[in-house]
Design brief:
single chain; 306 residues; eight-stranded parallel barrel
Amino acid sequence: MSLSRKVVLTLAGNKAVTSFVSNYGMKLGAARFVAGESLRAAMDRVKHLNDEGLIVTLDHLGESVTSREEALEATQAAIDIFDAIKENGVNSNVSVKLTQLGLDIDHAFCLENMNRIAQKAKETQNFVRIDMEDTPRLDVTIDIFNTLVDKYGKDHIGLVIQSYLYRSEQDVINLGKKNVNLRIVKGAYKEPASVAFPNKKDVDRNYVKLVQLHLQNGNYTAIATHDEAIIHELKAWLKENRIPDNLYEFQMLYGVRNGLQRQLVSEGYKVRVYTPYGMDWYPYFTRRIAERPANAFFVLKSFFQN
């Protein structure tokens, strides 16, 4: 992990820093990365993105809830997104985090909530993606995912795999046997060198390897990266290996590399924008800064302009 990223993640956990950032809210620059605090505001952004040829996955922000009431509220929020997508006729699916649905409270309770969401995805002929969180929650996340895939099918539920983990190659191999839909990311959590590659070049090398591995096995792959060098390398590989266009998509975060998103669309690629919204934006916002500390410059610039 880079020193700058380590510093940002450490500061993010400081109570004084948390209070300061939360008090200033969206005015501090979070609006660049968060599509509003309400579902209505987010839906307006989805329509705009669709008009530009981009498809979307919506994420109601929140994680690590401490009560069943909070988990049930988050579950209902995800269900409401599916209804809003259908009512507004937009091209979007949904992403969720299991800690937001009660994973740390009770695994069975979390699975029950996730069942409701997956059932709604199937009823509305849509799709839900389970985001991957830090390593202590990895095995149970995969277990819950496998249970849901067996029940609802791979067309309605997918998972995220992080290339900075040593174990991810074996996870991709195992999950590939079910022909599931995977989003491959580099990873944004603070992990020890005992489980994660400490050097960026190794994370990058493993990222390309995982994408190619899953596609070579004939499985749908979401290529989630803003790294232009990796995108260029994979575009050449996709063409050389004649990978069908309906087997992959590029994915990027809302507010990050907007020009590159539009460029890929103009070249005929399918591009999905991970679009978060909601009141609980702080943890997500700090991870975006940690991933690319240069984003802090934009935040400071926005702050002093307001």
